[in-house]
Specification:
single chain, 276 residues, mainly alpha, 0% strand, globular
């Protein structure tokens, strides 16, 4: 089975191999992140016949910031090329296209779990549970390769809970020795918080709301950031070296600078230095 497990490169969206599924399957509401309302299963009006975005280079000024921070973790090309064997949703019966749109978010959740599990297996501090992590990775990968019918009835929430137990243990091993109430901010409401220069090294920030928080120059080395909401958070000159379970969508949704230090698993967003 290991020969078939997705490589890190397969866990990033490849729009060239996808039929624009995120632009059709997912709904969005007119607000800060989107300029218009769109129902699930309805193509975005900016989606062209070749499955490319007609305003790709102007998404932010046009009011579609949400599109610029989204990543399917490679689920789009998996569903397009493997699950539905290269069938275009535009050319199949409506019932079949609806199945594609239903399956896509399921596979996206599974691919996100693959991202976390793949990263966990690179962390030396979690070596004692690498065997369990590897088995969870293989099980999750096998689920992504299920038939449309199998994926349609999969209880992905229950599987996420099982995997989360291992990810929690990984976090505990990674943050061993971290002390103090300020280090335990799991699920904390820190929206707009003034955390400039704060020592959050090895902090548990799982699921924390950090929307628009000022993290300028903050020390986030070795922090657990799984599920943290970083939309609009200011990471200018912050140090996230060794921070784990941080995804590209999270980084894309934040603000930062050339001085922001990031872990090697993510790349510096272009808009951080482009003034967008």
């Amino acid at each position: 089975m290991e020969d078939h497990i997705a490589a890190p490169a397969d866990l990033r969206g490849d729009c060239e191999r996808c039929f624009g599924l995120c632009c059709v399957a997912l709904p969005f509401t007119a607000a800060t992140d989107f300029a218009i309302d769109k129902a699930a299963g309805t193509p975005c009006p900016n989606l062209q016949s070749d499955h490319r975005c007609g305003i790709h280079t102007k998404l932010r000024p046009k009011g579609f910031t949400g599109c610029t921070v989204y990543d399917c973790f490679g689920a789009g090309q998996k569903v397009s090329q493997l699950t539905f064997a290269g069938q275009d949703w535009r050319t199949v019966p409506r019932a079949e296209s609806r199945r594609m749109f239903d399956v896509f978010p399921v596979v996206r959740q599974l691919h996100e779990l693959l991202w976390y599990l793949t990263e966990a297996l690179t962390l030396p501090a979690a070596e004692s549970i690498h065997g369990e992590l590897r088995r969870a990775l293989e099980t999750t990968d096998a689920l992504t390769r299920g038939t449309p019918d199998e994926l349609g009835v999969l209880d992905v929430g229950a599987h996420r809970q099982e995997v989360n137990v291992l990810l929690l243990r990984t976090s505990e091993l990674m943050r061993a020795g971290a002390k103090g109430k300020k280090k335990d901010r799991r699920g904390a409401d820190l929206m707009g918080a003034r955390l400039k220069g704060a020592d959050l090294s090895r902090a548990d920030l799982r699921g924390a709301c950090l929307i628009a928080a000022d993290l300028t120059g903050a020390d986030l080395r070795g922090a657990d950031l799984i599920g943290a909401d970083l939309r609009g958070a200011d990471l200018t000159d912050a140090d996230l070296t060794g921070a784990f379970f941080l995804t590209q969508p999270q980084v894309n949704s934040a603000r930062g600078s050339a001085g922001t230090r990031l872990p090697g698993s993510v790349v510096r967003p272009v808009h951080w230095t482009a003034g967008l």
